[in-house]
Amino acid sequence: MEGIRLEINGKKHVVDVSPYKPLRDVLRYDVGLTGTKESCDSGVCGVCTVLLGDKAVKSCLIPVGKMVGESITTIEGLSEEGEFSVLQQSFIDCFASQCGYCIPGFIMAATSLLVENSDPTVQEIREGLSGNLCRCTGYVKIIDAVKQAAIKEA
Predict the structure, then answer these.
(1) pLDDT for the residue numbered 1
(2) Looking at beta carbons, which pairs linking 94-98 to residues 24 or more positions away fall under 8 Å?
(3) 15 Cβ contact partners less than 8 Å away, ≥ 6 residues apart
(4) What is the DSSP string of the chain?
């Protein structure tokens, strides 16, 4: 087996895995990017959200064999030279995290939203984050963080 060639966070990787293995598992266990979390295995909770190009997707639902030629970004790929992105820093500033388990998925979904719509309304933020579940923090502070990031990036 030759290996599956992937571009993750701007770097080339070759993984020797089944093409049917979920992308989430490859990211976590084969590449070592543990910010992409594991939970429901059915695309419902959003903790495994990554970006394909600029689009947020649930990586537990995607076989890695379909990722050849795609640009994959994980939560680890958002920071530059050790500095958090504006959105990541907004989550910190707005206290939008308690346990933190769901936050990478929310940040990835919000990143996709802000690329598509740099000035979203609260309703648009809610819609953009739908499919991501939080059981600790609640959604008010998460929405505040996305609003703050949109203002700072404007």
Answers:
(1) 56
(2) 94/141, 94/142, 94/144, 94/145, 94/148, 95/137, 95/141, 96/137, 96/141, 96/142, 96/144, 96/145, 97/136, 97/137, 98/136, 98/137
(3) 3, 4, 6, 26, 30, 31, 64
(4) ---EEEEETTEEEEE-S-TTSBHHHIIIIIS--TTS----SSSSS-TTEEEETTEEEEGGGSBGGGGTT-EEE-GGGTSBTTBPPHHHHHHHHTT--SS-SSHHHHHHHHHHHHHH-SS--HHHHHHHHTT---SSS-HHHHHHHHHHHHHHH-
Those residues whose C-beta lies under 8 Å from the C-beta of residue 12, and which sit 6 or more positions away, are 5, 6
C-alpha torsion 13→57→102→94, nearest 10: 100
Write the single-letter amino acid at 41: D
Averaged over 103-131, what is the pLDDT?
97
Per cent of the chain over pLDDT 90 is 92
